[in-house]
């Protein structure tokens, strides 16, 4: 994926640009879904995923992150979407998810899924919607914390 520019920010899938320590800190210390995730688990997740970094164009400072687990043919799961606290409120989360969707569009995936507790509005702007038939979906929670309280 070539870099995308957005009002002083750019989005890239270049793994060499990721500040993995910063991303781990964001997720393990400041997200509701990955609090306490170990660095080793984080590094394995990054290594097995398609990663998107959001960077300040001038300085190269990382401002956001998103991760996709996909086979690049039929299915993708968008996860670990995070915008740094100092960069929130500028539409960067929406732009990052749009870049992910644009990047995956040529793959012809049947679906791109995600789970969110509180950012439905961000994803609805891009076209995400609730499952039409949630009763068809199942999950095997090997380490299942149960439903996320709303």
Residue share in helices?
Answer: 25-40%
Average pLDDT, to the nearest integer? 90
Low-confidence stretches: none
Note the main sheet: 6 strands, mixed
Give the C-alpha Rg.
15 Å
Tell me the structural class.
alpha+beta
For the termini, the CA-CA separation is 36 Å
**Strand elements, count:** 6
Strand order of the largest sheet: 1-2-3-4-5-6
* SSE string: EEHHEEEHEH
Strand content: 15-25%
How many helices? The count is 4
Shape: globular
Multimer state = single chain
Could you describe the 3D structure shown?
The chain is an alpha+beta fold. Helix content is 25%, strand content 23%. The protein has helices spanning 20-30, 39-47, 92-104, 120-124; strands spanning 4-6, 9-12, 50-56, 62-70, 75-83, 111-113. Strands 1-2-3-4-5-6 form a six-stranded mixed sheet. The protein is globular and about 45 Å long.
What is the secondary structure topology, with strand pairs?
Elements: E1 4-6, E2 9-12, H1 20-30, H2 39-47, E3 50-56, E4 62-70, E5 75-83, H3 92-104, E6 111-113, H4 120-124
Question: Notable features of this structure?
Answer:
six-stranded mixed beta sheet, alpha+beta, globular, 150 residues
């Amino acid at each position: 994926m070539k870099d995308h520019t957005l009002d002083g920010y750019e989005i890239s899938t270049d793994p060499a640009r990721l500040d993995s320590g910063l991303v781990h800190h964001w997720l393990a210390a400041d997200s509701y879904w990955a609090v306490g995730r170990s660095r080793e688990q984080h590094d394995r997740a990054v290594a097995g995923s398609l990663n998107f970094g959001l960077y300040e164009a001038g300085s190269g400072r990382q401002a956001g992150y998103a991760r996709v687990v996909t086979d690049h043919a039929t299915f993708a799961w968008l996860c670990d979407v995070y915008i740094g606290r100092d960069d929130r409120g500028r539409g960067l989360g929406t732009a990052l998810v749009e870049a992910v969707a644009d990047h995956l569009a040529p793959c012809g995936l049947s679906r791109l899924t995600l789970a969110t507790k509180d950012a439905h509005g961000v994803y609805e702007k891009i076209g995400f919607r609730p499952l039409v038939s949630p009763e068809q979906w199942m999950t095997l929670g090997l380490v299942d914390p149960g439903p996320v309280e709303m």
